[in-house]
Specification:
It is a single chain. Helix 1 packs parallel to helix 12 and helix 2 packs parallel to helix 3. The radius of gyration is 20 Å and the shape is globular. The protein is α/β, with parallel strands linked by helices and 343 residues long. The C terminus is likely disordered. The protein is built from twelve helices and ten strands. Strands 6-5-4-3-2-1-7-8 form an eight-stranded mixed beta sheet. The protein has a single domain, classed as TIM Barrel (Alpha-Beta Barrel), CATH 3.20.20. The structure holds iron/sulfur cluster (2 copies).
Length: 343
């Protein structure tokens, strides 16, 4: 994160607006990845599942996403799903509009279809492709977005690879190096990021890393970042694996990112995982990255994180006060005064 971006984000927090927005633009996905949190029962926090929400398509989707962006004024938007490439036609309209608004936009996809070459030329637009380990494991988990298909679909793209380290991966010596050897050699790959599998509280998934495995992964990443410059994880970010936030209130990422689902109304809390994530076992790259920024000393022992969190409290209070002072619309019986969504 650049200094100018930190200052802008701070201003946005003080104004009571989360600087980062994550939007699940569709509830559809051609994949059925095991452990996908978006389709888990508790993802939206209530009884409703992502598949049961109404979502938008075509011009309605473009118009309503831009409406949300214009209202929230985020500095950074992540477009996720389902798989956002299900709506690639809409994205072709949406992305130039995001660029014209000066908003950094990141599309997170499985690359099950071709990534339009024009996106590589757009300033402020980045594409993150999720890969679940080396080809044998990935192809089983992520068909039809197999290695073979991804390699064809990214030929003219510029991408960041994001991979989630599971217990199975952590237990195989040399696995991460082999992964980096493969992907860093591709000219289309600008960066590689790793997250660690983050469970829900009380979950017993086989993917969960033991405390020893978390430390081993940390040591391995310290070693690999020197060998593979495309591994875009600074030492202070990797160190955060050892001390994840204790709860969402301490998580700068969760506090500064608003996540909304496919109806563009439902909020996903406390972070993009939804449900009741186990922060003490978190390994999300975004959370670790912002925690590292947060631990940066600004003046004496005062850290950037302490300033961010205090500013967040000020900003939220300010927003509440503004809402309380706003004149209330006169209610009419026959119509809703300010409908949020036209479905
Ligand atoms: S591609 Fe993403 S949204 Fe689709 S099933 Fe896999 S993890 Fe879930
Ligand atoms: S990103 Fe991680 S630390 Fe932050 S709220 Fe979610 S699970 Fe907790």
């Amino acid at each position: 994160m650049k200094k100018s971006e930190v200052v802008k984000a701070w201003g946005s927090i003080l104004a009571g607006r989360p600087p980062s927005l994550s939007i699940e633009i569709t509830k559809e996905c051609p994949l059925r990845c095991p452990g996908c949190y978006a389709f888990e029962a508790g993802h939206l926090g209530g009884g409703t599942k992502l598949k049961e929400l109404s979502d938008f398509r075509g011009d309605d989707l473009v118009k309503n996403v831009l409406r949300v962006v214009d209202e929230q004024k985020p500095l950074h938007v992540s477009i996720v799903g389902g798989d956002p490439l299900v709506r690639y036609r809409e994205l072709e309209q949406l992305l130039p509009q995001m660029v014209s608004r000066g908003v950094h936009t990141q599309v997170v996809t499985s690359a099950f279809r071709v990534i339009p070459p024009a996106w590589a030329q757009m300033p402020l637009v980045s594409v993150v492709v999720s890969i679940d380990g080396l080809q044998p494991e990935h192809d089983v988990r992520r068909a039809p977005a197999t290695y073979e298909r991804i390699l064809k679909n990214i030929v003219d793209a510029k991408i960041t690879i994001h991979s989630t380290i599971t217990s199975q991966i952590a237990s195989r010596p040399g696995y991460l190096q082999e992964f980096l050897e493969f992907w860093c050699a591709r000219p289309q790959v600008n960066k590689v990021w790793f997250s660690l599998f983050t469970p829900q509280r009380g979950a017993t998934d086989v993917e969960i890393l033991s405390p020893e495995q978390r430390l081993e992964v940390m040591e391995e990443l310290f070693r690999l970042r020197v060998l593979y410059p495309k591994l875009d994880m600074q030492e202070r970010v990797i160190k955060e694996i050892a001390t994840p936030p204790r709860n969402p209130k301490e998580c700068i990422f969760a506090r500064t990112t608003q996540t909304i689902s496919a109806d563009l109304t439902t909020q996903i809390t406390p972070c993009q995982f939804g449900g009741d994530p186990d922060c003490s076992q978190c390994g999300c790259i975004a959370s670790m990255g912002l925690a590292a920024v947060g631990h940066f000393p600004v003046v004496g022992s005062l850290t950037a994180g302490q300033i961010f969190l205090a500013s967040d409290r000020v900003g939220r209070t300010w927003q509440k006060a503004k809402q309380a002072l706003r004149p209330r619309p006169v209610k009419k019986v026959e119509a809703v005064a300010f409908p949020i969504i036209n479905s």
